Amino acid sequence: MREERLKQLREKMGKAEALLVTSRPNVFYLSGFTGTSSQLLITQKEAFLLTDSRYYIQARTQCPLFEVVEISGAVARLVQERNIKTMGYESSMSVASFQRLQGYAPETELIDFTQELSDLRAVKSEEEIACSRRAAQICDAAFADILNVVKPGVTERELALELEFNVRRRGASGMSFDTIIASGPRSAMPHAEPSDAEVKEGEFLLFDFGAVYEGYCSDMTRTVVVGEPNEKQLEIYDTVLQAQEAAVAALRAGQVCSDVDRIARDIISKAGYGETFGHGLGHSVGIQIHEDPRLSPSCHTVLKENTLMTVEPGIYVEGFGGVRIEDLTVVRKESAEILTKTGKKLIKL
Prior knowledge:
This protein is of the alpha+beta class. The protein has two domains: 2-121, 3-Layer(aba) Sandwich (Creatine Amidinohydrolase, Chain A, domain 1), CATH 3.40.350.10; 126-338, Creatine Amidinohydrolase (Alpha-Beta Complex), CATH 3.90.230. Helix content is 35%, strand content 22%. It contains ten helices and 19 strands. The longest helix has 21 residues, at 126-146. The radius of gyration is 23 Å and the shape is elongated.
């Protein structure tokens, strides 16, 4: 798999004689290396993994396609030895790192290669999809278990701890991001951190979490009601559900991201809640929880087959509460494959 990735990368390099890869996600994507303190230097014929002595054995084990070299001074030495005149770099590096790079190679033209790397990672192989599918399965099972723990008086932090333990126990290496659990009026904060707030009867309870499996992420959100919902809660939930299902139904290769976003946004706006839906409809997922492209009004990218996308509309009413429903999907030629299997009918606990 990584041999094919290196081949694809070299085809994209164009006039760049070499590419310096510095971000951990891209180092992992191209080499399989999971340690820190690492960079890759890739030319049309050679591939080097730069690291320090703490990781030599690990790097040689994980990265058979790469020559492992001591990181200190390696970039300057390799560039000079190979007389590299043009080199790609990632714009995610710090200003200080970029200035050091300029000092290492003052005669070398530096070319921003960030978008090319993003494009390469956007379309997933079936092996990558299988990892995110397994991560989604772990989360489905953990969510089913956590519902048995929910009761009035339990705190958001207690639920988060139980949920994260369950996810790891089922084989995940960790969480995709900091778990969001928000109850009552706090559920109107899309990225609320779990607090000591206690779950109360008659309130929304929102769960947004994901797992990492073999380096790949999942993402799901479900909102439940503790007790019986009132009319306004039912109205908000049904509106979000309608918007979410309509957007998923429209998701396929060839669709423009902003057009899919508009489908959900129009439904929420027509119901009178347009101003309460401030974030984008979704984002790509992979090694990182937020990747490109995005389902948003400002992203006009045409979706490609085998892109992993979330679909997560929401309504957030300050002082009352919020609802978000999110599935992880795979964009296929004719429709979307939904990896999140937990049902979306309102759960009353």
